[in-house]
Design goal:
There is one protein chain. The protein is built from no helices and 33 strands. By secondary structure, the chain is an all-beta fold. It has one domain. The chain has an 11-stranded parallel beta sheet, with no helix packed on it.
Length: 329
């Protein structure tokens, strides 16, 4: 199936919704001003009338483009603007995996992330005799521009958000590469695992070669000390996050370039990044560890030197460091 060349606007919920399908192409569309059923006030936000199989819609009503139970499909070259949120990959109706989200512009979607990968509770109406596979796994988010999203209310949305919302759910093995993530309400990339249920998995995701600038602080239990490039967060009573790799990114105009709160046994590997915020390069807010060797901290003398970004918190390894940037900032 191919959906291309359309202008999709003024829908109550998603502009484009695909469920339980393979080999779909959504390309070169304008998806603007949808999610009109969203009711923000009084809180909590809600989407009256949205189909029951969409289990975790509050601030987004499905966003501009929504894939659920979709695999081996491509979303490319679309303009997604002025919806509640941009592009959503979820598993309400089954696993969403091995998809390519490439070359899209997701901008000025005020109530959610530009691009969201979120494992949701299962559709309660699915027949129990055919339990679906779960997870938002092995998707590639490449060459997109995600800007000005999630700014309507505090903590509304990141440039790219990777989330897990309950027991037995997972958002794992995804690649976020070569994107421009700027001026969003939450960090440029935000990992959130809030709930202390068994079997959750927000592991082995790769964040590489992105330019991240001018984004907001994280909020609530995932709070960071100020505007943040990348935040990797798990609740203290939830599963630790391991296998996160952050490599060759340019992070600038942030108070905290990389924040980590990954739980006991959690681990972030961050290497070959240009950490140019000039305040905190790495802030370890939790009990996990951060391997932050071989980064450029803004000057040749390394973290904490005059003119360099610093390390805050325990459990961070920063030696050796680079004495020149890995790419032109």
């Amino acid at each position: 199936m191919v959906v291309t060349g359309f202008t999709v606007q003024n829908a109550n919920f998603e502009g484009i919704l695909v469920t339980n399908a393979s080999s779909v192409t959504i390309s070169d569309n304008r998806v603007v001003s949808n999610n009109l059923a969203l009711v923000v006030t009084p809180p909590p936000a809600k989407c009256p009338g949205i189909p029951g199989f969409e289990t975790s819609e509050d601030f987004d009503c499905g966003e501009g483009i929504h894939l659920s139970g979709v695999d081996h499909s491509t979303v490319s070259g679309n303009l997604i603007e002025n919806n509640a949120g941009g592009i959503l990959l979820s598993d309400d109706t089954g696993a969403t995996h091995d998809n390519l989200i490439i070359g899209n512009i997701a901008q000025n979607n005020p109530f959610d992330c530009g691009i969201t990968l979120a494992s949701h509770p299962l559709d309660p109406n699915l027949p129990p005799e055919i339990p679906p596979t779960r997870g938002v796994d092995n998707n590639t988010i490449s060459g997109n521009q995600s800007s000005g999203n999630g700014v309507a209310v505090l903590g509304a949305g990141a440039g790219v958000g990777l989330f897990v919302a309950g027991g037995g759910l997972e958002t794992a093995g995804n690649v976020v590469i070569d994107n421009q993530l700027t001026n969003n309400g939450l960090p440029g990339v935000a990992f959130h695992l809030h709930t202390p249920f068994a079997g959750q998995n927000l592991n082995k995701n790769l964040i590489a070669d992105n330019t991240i600038s001018g984004n907001g602080a994280d909020t609530e239990d995932a709070k960071t000390p100020g505007p943040t490039g990348i935040n990797v967060f798990t609740n203290a009573h939830a599963a630790p996050i391991t296998g996160t790799v952050i490599v060759q990114n340019i992070i600038k105009n942030e108070q905290v370039d990389i924040a980590a709160n990954t739980g006991t046994g959690g681990l972030v590997d961050a290497h070959l990044n240009n950490l140019l915020g000039k305040a905190t390069g790495v802030d370890n807010l939790g009990t996990g560890t951060v391997n932050a060797t071989v980064n450029w901290w803004g000057c040749s003398k390394g973290p904490g030197a005059s003119g360099c970004a610093s390390v805050v918190g325990k459990g961070v390894t920063s030696t050796p460091w680079l004495t020149a940037p890995t790419a032109q900032p």
